[in-house]
Amino acid sequence: MVERFSSPSQKDAKGISKWIPQVEEWFSPLVSGPGLRAVFRKELADHFNSRRFLILATIVAVTGLAAIYVAAVNIRQEVRETAESGFVFLRLFTASGGSLPPFTSFMGFLGPLVGLALGFDAINGERVRGTLSRLVAQPIHRDSIINGKFLASICIIALMIFALGFIVAGLGLRLIGIPPTGEEVLRILAYLGLSVVYVAFWLALSLLFSVVFRQTATSALAAIATWLFVVIFVGLLAGLIADAVVPVGSDAGAEELLRHERLHQALGRLSPTILYDEATTVLLQPQVRTLGPVLLSQIEWAVPGPLPFGQSLLLIWPHLTGLVAATLVCFAASYVLFMRHEIRAS
Amino acid sequence: MKMNGHHPEDAHETVIETQNLTKRYGDLVAVKGLNLKVKRGEIFGLLGPNGAGKTTTILMLLGLTEPTGGSARVLGHDPTREVLEVKGLVGYMPEDVGYYEDLTGRENLMYTADLNGLPRQEAAARVERLLSQVGLAEVADKRVEHYSHGMRQRLGLADVLVKDPEIIILDEPTQGIDPQGAQDLLKFIVRLSRERQMTVLISSHLLDQMQRICDRVAIFVRGEVIAEGPIDTLGRQIMRGESLVVEVEVAARDGGTRSSREIVESLQDLPGVQKVEPSGGNHFLVHCSVDVRDRIATQLVEKGLSLTHLRLRGYGLTDIYMRYFRGGESDG
User: Fold this and answer.
1) B284 three-state secondary structure
2) Which residues in chain B have their CB less than 8 angstroms from residue A6's CB?
3) Contact indicator for A142, A151 with CB cutoff of 8 Å
4) B2 and B213 in contact (C-beta within 8 Å)?
5) Distance between alpha carbon A278 and the CA centroid of its chain, in Å?
6) CB-based contact B108:B144 (threshold 8 Å)
7) CB-CB: which of A6, A8, A130 is closest to B97?
8) B122: number of CA atoms within 13 Å, CB side?
9) Which value, in Å, is the radius of gyration of the alpha carbons in chain B?
10) Quick check: helix, strand or coil at residue B18?
11) Domain residue limits, chain A
């Protein structure tokens, strides 16, 4: 058993846990106030030691590494054959090799699960264990509890995603032997940052469920149901609704097709997953110049070529804003609900 | 009978005071116009059946729930406005206290110390001392999931003391633990109060335990305090103006030759006795204006009867409890 709080020397700390004080140090400007810091520290230690988190992080890491490896093998072959070298490094993340989907798909699919796993029992878990009433009787502000939990989980997510990103980038570099350009590095960093925001959204959502539902099982199920719905069905539903509202036959005019397409896209963008996918595409594939439908007349005189990083960022700025806003709305809702909750043992 | 030797009549400083404290949940009045005064160093018992408003009162004193009306002062602070000050000075052990199961007892206490802003070194020393005081030194580094219920309650007491409080509030601390464990826990509480002049507010529905350790008690029924004071005067306070009842039982002898009527008559004439009422078998209830137990005993022995049971009803907490709480429980 690792001595988490008692020994400052951490003499018998093993494995990942010995980094906890270091991690605390990095994020200490974020957490001020004694109560907040104590909760933050405890949650950080809990996550580092929780099997739940370690298992999920391992799954994400293994699949990510596998995807990168397969992609790198394919790219190597391709580059040898075509001698085409524009943004090769970025293709590590987006190229799928044979049967394995690309790294970004794994991140988009499994990332939310990590967020959900970190948050679904944050508050009701304490309530069920009977520790919440003990916690709120300590001389700390009540919001320190929920803030500390949220911040600690976000830190864990950021650490995991950036660490994984750097590991796979390093592996890719080793495998394809082509170093990334400065712009590629920026794009990868932006992509990792975007992923943190995306996973943080799922964290905030599961935190909200953990305040709303009394039982941890209920909140876990609700979180997973929401995740399945958003990841799988929102896209399909958006198509169905668009078909119903703006039916397009085989003889539909361009205008009608455009309306249909716009509606489809607008509805789909209600789902954070689609926002994230679009933003990922734009960030990691600089040749993508626009996300909406494009008319032939619009590209007639266009010079084909990749967008500069700044322009790509501009293109996804609304997506990023939307994701951050969704995260904050979820967190604000859980904050308000938690602050109003009556704390009773029974 | 009492283990505690304080005299609450000494003009001690008042540390908890409520005025007309009221809490409503919709139509339900959980606490109705509560006026309490608890002095420093006192062990004060909140007695009453479940749902009588004890826990709600405690939560209001801690600022964990806002009163609908009235006010409270805890060590000179208003719990609704100066929450942190109050929580820093008051230790609270909730009913069904819970811990982080995957942490050790020591780690759980260290977390509490951390939340109270204690420097790590000082916290470690204090936690060590408290763990050995409550007798958990040997299991301090075992995970709490392996602790027994009694150990958890003792850990709860240590947890409450980590912040070195001036007042501790314990909600049903002996619930569910074996008599020996409860006894030890109560002894420890009494010692705390005596040695450290700590004020203890303890809520319970277990009368005999409270009777042994509390300096004063308040009896809650349906959100109201029906009586308050030292236990020995409490009975008189409640039963004021009513006659006393003595329960008498004699051994059945001589093949039942002495009828119960004979016994009734022999007791009827004693001075102070108002009425004698047979209540089945060899059992009688003697209504009287003063305590006539000695006279009854003498009388019966003179008649050659052997007395098997003689008890004055109405002064013990149990009697008060039975009288008032039955009604309270049946109303839910």
Assistant:
1) strand
2) 106-107, 110, 124, 127
3) no
4) yes
5) 13
6) yes
7) A130
8) 10
9) 24
10) strand
11) 18-294+306-340
Could you give the strand order of the β-sheet that contains B43-47, starting from the edge strand earlier in sequence? B90-93, B167-171, B199-204, B43-47, B216-221, B224-229
Q: What is the pLDDT of residues A154-197, one digit of tens each?
A: 999 999 999 999 998 898 888 888 888 888 999 999 999 999 99
Distance of CA A208 to the CA centre of its chain: 17
Residue A243: is its pLDDT beyond 60?
Answer: yes
Residues in B closer than 8 angstroms to A140, CB to CB, are 84, 87, 115
pLDDT in tens, A193-221: 999 999 999 999 999 999 999 999 999 99
Tokens representing A80 are 């040898």
Cα of first residue to Cα of last residue in chain A, in angstroms, is 32
ipTM of the complex: 0.81
Q: Number of Cβ pairs closer than 8 Å across A and B?
A: 98
Between B315 and A168, the higher pLDDT residue: A168
Is B103 in contact with A129 (Cβ distance < 8 A)?
no
Task: Tell me the backbone φ, ψ of residue B12, rounded to 5 degrees.
Answer: -80, 160
CATH numbers and ranges of domains, chain B: 14-232 (3.40.50.300), 244-313 (3.30.70.100)
Identify whether the C-beta of residue B213 lies closer than 8 Å to the C-beta of residue B206.
no
Chain A contact set for B114 (CB, 8 A): 5, 38, 41-42
* Average confidence (pLDDT) over B264-275: 81
